[in-house]
Amino acid sequence: MEFDDYYEDTFDNYKYDNSRKDHLKLFIRRLIIESAVIVSLLGVVFLFYGLYLKCYCTESVNAIIYDAHMGTFEDSDSWYATYIFNYDGNYYKKVISYSTKLKDNYNIGDVTELMINPTNPEQSYLADDIPSHIYTGIGLIVFSILMAIIMWVYAKFKNHI
After folding, report:
1. Where are the domains positioned within the chain?
2. Which of helix, strand or coil describes residue 94?
3. Tens digit of pLDDT for each residue in 118-151?
4. Which residues, in sequence order, are bridge partners of residue 93?
5. Which CATH number applies to 52-136?
6. Which tens digits make up the pLDDT trace of 1-42?
């Protein structure tokens, strides 16, 4: 094999390797962008559900904390409180989870105010709280926007890095 043949084979392999790298970069970029879109759509769903609860849960009822216990979900400790309330002669139970920091704020037997949906009393949230779905939705939307900004900055300045 002569030197020119060897050089030509090596150059062809180099072009092939760069092409594979470009395809991998494009795949990763598309994966991140599509993930950002999915996360933002999920954030919108959470946000609208939280706003739905805020708009339709218009009836105020007193609820009693019936049970409280610690639980673990995906390696995270949470405090779960079971509320019982009466609406239109029917009793309902609602389990709400909190972070362990709020555990001392609520005790078994305490009476608190819940906002419920009069047409579906199962839908409710604590009156002194904003539905957590709103925070989750906003967080997911902000996270996806940050992902998009990082991708835009990377694409804009990738030749300078």
Report:
1. 52-136
2. strand
3. 999 988 888 877 777 788 889 899 998 888 888 8
4. 84
5. 2.40.50
6. 554 554 455 445 555 556 777 777 778 878 888 888 898 889
